[in-house]
């Protein structure tokens, strides 16, 4: 039996993935290992190059996924990344897509010191719902949940909702 579910938390940069993942890891009824995939890629050198113009790393997906497979396989993991289509469909028990009003998102990314170009790119992606579409085309509809992340109230409610989902998931596992 898996140790716990595998929860993908995705969304445009700045929507609140890491904030949600940290709170969720603390509040979860089963231990969940929070993997911030961007940090993981940097720490382990799973990238091919650094693109200075876009201030991003070109990820070596084969190496990343090979490594992550062993981490994800036992279960009990939160995968926190701004994209989700690279993960094999079978990995995820739940895919949470965070969304945020684009003007609020703009302010968050500005506060983070992103270049104007990068803010614009992400802002546009949020307006076009790029990550949501990606999640919907990569996973079964019943495991994809869209949650708004614009206020602290929503943050708390979202975490509580996912905790409830985990509790139910654990019960279903016991029943199997
Ligand atoms: N629901 C929310 N309400 C208010 N502020 C939030 C919310 N979610 C995230 N933030 C703030 O937005 C910024 C970006 O959040 P972060 O979790 O780092 O985003 P991501 O991991 O998606 O890039 C942080 O300053 C965080 O405190």
From TrEMBL:
SUPFAM superfamilies: P-loop containing nucleoside triphosphate hydrolases. Its EC number is 2.7.4.3. Keywords: ATP-binding, Cytoplasm, Kinase, Nucleotide-binding, Nucleus, Ribosome biogenesis, rRNA processing, Transferase. GO terms for cellular component: cytoplasm; nucleus. The keyword Nuclease does not apply. ATP binds at residues 14, 16-19, 112. One of its GO terms (molecular function) is ATP hydrolysis activity. Residues 36-59 are annotated as: NMPbind. It is found in: Cytoplasm; Nucleus. It comes from the Eukaryota. Belongs to the adenylate kinase family. AK6 subfamily. PANTHER family: ADENYLATE KINASE ISOENZYME 6, POS9-ACTIVATING FACTOR FAP7-RELATED. This is Adenylate kinase isoenzyme 6 homolog.
């Amino acid at each position: 039996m898996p140790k716990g579910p595998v929860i993908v938390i995705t969304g445009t940069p700045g929507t609140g993935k890491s904030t949600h993942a940290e709170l969720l890891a603390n509040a979860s009824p089963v231990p969940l290992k929070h993997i911030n995939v961007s940090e993981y890629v940097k720490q382990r050198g799973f990238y091919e190059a650094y693109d200075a113009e876009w201030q991003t790393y070109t990820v070596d997906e084969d190496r990343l996924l090979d490594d992550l497979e062993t981490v994800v396989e036992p279960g009990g993991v939160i995968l926190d990344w701004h994209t989700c289509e690279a993960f094999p469909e079978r990995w995820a028990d739940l895919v949470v897509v965070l969304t945020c009003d684009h003007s609020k998102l703009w302010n968050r990314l500005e506060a983070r010191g992103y270049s104007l170009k990068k803010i614009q790119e992400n802002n546009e992606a949020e307006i076009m719902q790029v990550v949501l579409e990606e999640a919907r085309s990569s996973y079964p509809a019943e495991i994809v949940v869209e949650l708004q992340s614009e206020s602290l109230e929503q943050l708390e409610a979202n975490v509580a909702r996912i905790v409830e989902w985990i509790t139910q998931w654990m019960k279903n596992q016991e029943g199997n």
